[in-house]
Design a protein that fits this description.
The complex is a heterodimer. By secondary structure, chain A is mainly α. Chain A is built from twelve helices and no strands. Chain A is flat. The chains are: A mainly alpha, B alpha/beta.
Chain lengths: 268, 269
């Protein structure tokens, strides 16, 4: 009898959990529909200038057109590739640089002021110089995507390396571990969660770098479409590109989040 | 013959603006197979002595010899147990135990079998593939003990290894550690602030004074107590007598400690 009532309580709990989830989801849908509905309405009633603010139906039309002639796929592909590469290069290079700093305290002391300056520097301001140095092409844009996250990754990961509980190091030192072994067995694995949380930040940063890079130089990509649409006063095109960026940036963020849960589960 | 000798060892902690003397003129020696307890209030530099012997901290003055050889030339194999287990949470129990051999590039089958045997000996068979977070505090500290013993160290440094455990677990673990150390006749130094623990486990107690850390008095534990398990020692009539003597001595030192400035050592207790 008592066993049944325990089960009952549990089922009630599960039921409430599900109900809450449904409630949240339905409001999320309401907000989405209301936003686009109001936008459409405002545009068709000329409350806002449809030439500047476009409208959802216009955006859908532009997207269908650009996807059916294949041109949007090219732009999307280019931007995604640049972003993923910029993200990976920035993150990996940042971790490598943090490792180099960790390997010598003296070196890190020497580098300290330069890192502070490089971190404070708004990286997109380096755009023109990067384009001149790398040539006006993919390489420059990928560099922009990477450079924007590399310094902050270096600093965050390096400080995580330093915050590893010194007692883990003490245990390894009692076994006469070398500095390399201490890094491999304790420092690196202990900071995996910190590195993963930089991944999430870096995804967003790489989008910024790549889009700004495309503003400046490219002939392809979503950033290029935004600038092109702006120049020819086709704001439906600008809005379409913005919506695609929003969707794909969110998707990339979600993927990184999945990787995070997976890695944390498997690295304990 | 003495196995480990400290001669006039001192240690200073330096900071930008000032320095503190953590250890002042520490001299003692330990015979092979002897179990010595360093007993004293927190901040008296007990743990610093262990770190110095372990070669993790360099002392600023004095000499240390292992079998008449200077410490830094002797390549002393040490086993170090800390207040907490500090098992690596991302490694399985067996990988945690085998970290010492891994570092010295010993991946032999014997070592692995030895690890399994030792785990069984401390009552932890069948958990080698588990992870530390699924174990209780007492179990984890037993794993840490096996990790320490697997490299067959010449000397064991026990830095309050029972202080983070509940009383019951602590008493059981004291017996287990004592048994194992006698079985393998290990030379050991136990750092503790628990008078009972020092008497129950060791052959000799070095009572320390704080500010700066120095050895105030040495107590020989009566022979009758040395050969009893820690749990039984606590019930022996002579235990209470020694306890009272140490207690009195500790309190005698107290006023001195209270008068002088509080010195914080970076190593804590």
């Amino acid at each position: 009898m008592e066993h049944e009532s325990d089960q009952q309580l549990f089922e009630n709990y599960q039921y409430n959990l599900k109900r809450e989830k449904k409630f949240v989801l339905s409001w999320q849908i309401v907000i989405l529909v209301a936003f686009f509905g109001f936008w459409e309405l405002a545009s068709s009633m000329y409350w806002i200038d449809p030439l500047i603010f476009s409208s959802p139906s216009e955006i859908v039309y532009v997207l269908l057109e650009k996807f059916s002639d294949g041109s949007m796929f090219t732009h999307l592909q280019v931007t995604l590739l640049e972003t993923v590469l910029g993200f990976l290069i920035g993150t990996i290079l940042g971790i490598v640089m943090a490792t180099v700093l960790w390997s010598s305290e003296r070196f890190s002391n020497i580098m300290d002021p330069y890192l502070v300056v490089m971190n404070a520097m708004p990286k997109v301001a380096l755009g023109p110089i990067i384009i001149v140095a790398m040539g006006p092409g993919y390489l420059a844009i990928i560099t922009m995507g990477a450079i924007i996250s590399v310094v902050i990754t270096t600093l965050v990961v390096y400080s995580a390396f330093r915050e590893v509980d010194p007692n883990y190091v003490k245990v390894l030192k009692s076994f006469k571990a070398t500095r390399g072994q201490i890094f491999k067995e304790a420092v690196f694995p202990a900071t995996i969660p910190a590195m993963i949380s930089t991944l999430k930040v870096n995804v967003g940063l790489s989008w910024v770098g790549v889009v700004v890079g495309e503003f400046l130089v490219s002939k392809e990509g979503l950033g290029y479409l935004i600038v092109y649409g702006f120049q020819v006063f086709d704001f439906s095109l600008v809005m379409s590109s913005l919506i695609l960026i929003a969707i794909f940036a969110a998707v990339m963020y979600k993927i990184v989040e999945r990787i995070e849960t997976f890695l944390i589960k498997h690295s304990r | 013959m003495s196995f480990l000798t400290l001669e006039h060892v001192s240690h200073h902690y330096f900071s930008k603006k000032n320095y503190t003397k953590a250890l002042d003129n520490i001299s003692f020696s330990i015979k092979e197979g002897e179990f010595v307890a360093l007993l004293g209030p927190s901040g008296c530099g007990k743990s610093t002595i262990l770190s110095i012997i372990a070669g993790i901290v360099n002392h600023t003055a004095g000499n240390i010899y292992v079998n008449k050889q200077p410490l830094h030339e002797a390549e002393l194999d040490i086993g170090y147990m800390l207040q907490q287990d500090y098992l690596f949470p991302w490694k399985s129990i067996i990988d945690n135990v085998l970290i010492g051999p891994k570092i010295s590039h010993d991946q032999s089958k014997e070592t692995k079998e030895n690890a399994a045997d030792l785990l069984t000996q401390v009552g932890l068979s069948g958990i080698s593939e588990d992870y530390p977070d699924s174990l209780s505090g007492g179990m984890r500290q037993r794993v840490a003990l096996v990790r320490t013993l697997i490299t067959n160290p010449k000397i064991l440094l026990l830095d309050e290894p029972f202080s983070a455990l509940d009383y019951q677990t602590k008493l059981k673990l004291e017996d287990l550690v004592w048994d194992l150390l006698r079985l393998y006749s290990k030379t050991s130094i136990l750092v503790t602030h628990d008078i009972g623990e020092a008497i129950a486990m060791s052959d000799r107690i070095l009572l320390m004074d704080a500010n700066p850390g120095s050895i105030a008095k040495t107590f020989e534990v009566p022979v009758e107590l040395r050969h009893e398990k820690p749990f039984l020692v606590r019930r022996h009539p002579k235990y209470q007598i020694l306890f009272d003597r140490v207690w009195e001595e500790l309190n005698k030192n107290e006023p001195n400690a209270a008068q002088s400035k509080v010195v914080e050592s970076p190593n804590g207790t």
